């Protein structure tokens, strides 16, 4: 039987490749003009990526250059990319004579706790949406997604009122709760697509071996979902780290400010301290760079799975 099925398929493939209609396509595919067009297209793509990378990196390089200049030469002309006199006085002022280290610590605490709270809520919800069928599932998922589209400024005043009335204004708690609530819908949809990419047969095999549903989820599914969890963690962490609206609205105590608010202390009515500001920005970027370097593969894998499913 296998020989019988394979034989006609092979002969059909031979007739197709040798047919007159297929010959022009094969010739066009191998033509020099097509090859030159393909190479030109690739070159255009690479040039576009190079231009986009330069557009993104040049401001960072300029900030690094400015942070290494004495304050008296920051606005000097002609402009120099490489400082004539390198100095670390701006970094010394930022790290040892300002509240930037405390702001960094606050941001790390709020970001890490928000990531944990978001994953604790979003992982079971995403798994349930991926594995179980129930009435109203599509409508519920759409409603969850729709809540993430509400602009933060639209609910800022009610949230502020509730924070004051509940006595959580000027605390870590109010920021963590709001950040988690805003990130859960997005993370649910990302992780739902990733859980759908994991074969359900793996869990069924675990159930056959005597595992409970929770045991199969914790011991079989979660280890396979590490790329998706890493992507969700990075997305949430970056969102909290870069946010200014919530951090500036719900905290007025200088000792509780996040780094996004702390940077604005260098913008005063008397002018901008460019050297120290750019040094603080460089210090602020360091945790983000480290996080992306460590979790790059998981971030790409998690986003790809989440985008291709659901």
Automatic annotation (TrEMBL):
From start to end residue, where is composition biased (Polar residues)?
A: 7-16
Q: Where is the composition biased (Low complexity)?
A: 17-33
Extract the ranges annotated as region (Disordered): 1-35
Q: Which CDD domains match?
A: TM_PBP2
Name all ABC transmembrane type-1 domain ranges.
104-295
One example of a Gene Ontology biological process annotation: transmembrane transport
Q: How does it sit in the membrane?
A: Multi-pass membrane protein
What is its subcellular localisation?
A: Cell membrane
Q: Which UniProt keywords apply?
A: Cell membrane, Membrane, Sugar transport, Transmembrane, Transmembrane helix, Transport
Listed InterPro entries: BP-dep_ABC_trans_perm, MetI-like, MetI-like_sf
Q: Which Pfam families match?
A: BPD_transp_1 (PF00528)
What does the entry list under GO cellular component? plasma membrane
Q: Where are the transmembrane segments?
A: 43-62, 104-127, 139-161, 173-195, 216-241, 273-295
Which family does the record assign? Answer: Belongs to the binding-protein-dependent transport system permease family. MalFG subfamily.
Name this protein carries in UniProt: Carbohydrate ABC transporter permease
Q: Which organism is it from?
A: Micromonospora craterilacus
């Amino acid at each position: 039987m296998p020989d019988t099925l394979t034989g006609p398929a092979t002969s059909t493939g031979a007739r197709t490749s040798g047919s007159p209609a297929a010959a022009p396509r094969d010739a066009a595919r191998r033509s020099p003009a097509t090859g030159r067009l393909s190479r030109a297209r690739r070159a255009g793509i690479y040039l576009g990526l190079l231009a986009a990378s330069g557009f993104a990196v040049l401001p960072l390089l300029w900030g690094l250059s400015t942070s290494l200049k004495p304050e008296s030469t920051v606005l000097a002309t002609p402009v120099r990319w490489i400082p004539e006199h390198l100095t670390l006085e701006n970094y010394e002022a930022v790290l040892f004579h300002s509240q930037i280290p405390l702001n960094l610590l606050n941001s790390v605490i709020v970001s890490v706790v928000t990531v944990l709270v978001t994953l604790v809520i979003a992982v079971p919800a995403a798994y349930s949406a991926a594995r179980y069928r129930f009435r109203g599932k599509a409508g519920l998922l759409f409603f969850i997604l729709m809540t993430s589209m509400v602009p933060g400024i639209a609910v800022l005043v009610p949230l502020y009122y509730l924070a004051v009335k509940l006595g959580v204004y000027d605390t870590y708690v109010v920021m963590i709760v709001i950040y988690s609530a805003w990130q859960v819908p997005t993370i649910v949809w990302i992780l739902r697509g990733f859980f759908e990419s994991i074969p359900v047969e793996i869990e069924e095999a675990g159930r056959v071996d005597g595992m409970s549903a929770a045991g199969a989820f914790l011991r079989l599914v979660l280890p396979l979902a590490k790329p998706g969890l890493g992507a969700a963690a990075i997305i949430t962490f970056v969102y909290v780290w870069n946010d200014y609206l919530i951090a500036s609205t719900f905290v007025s105590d200088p000792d509780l400010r996040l780094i996004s608010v702390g940077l604005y202390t260098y913008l005063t009515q008397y002018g901008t301290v460019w050297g120290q500001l750019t040094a603080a920005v460089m210090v602020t970027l360091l945790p983000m760079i480290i996080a992306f370097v460590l979790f790059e593969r998981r971030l790409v894998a998690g986003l790809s799975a989440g985008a291709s499913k659901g």
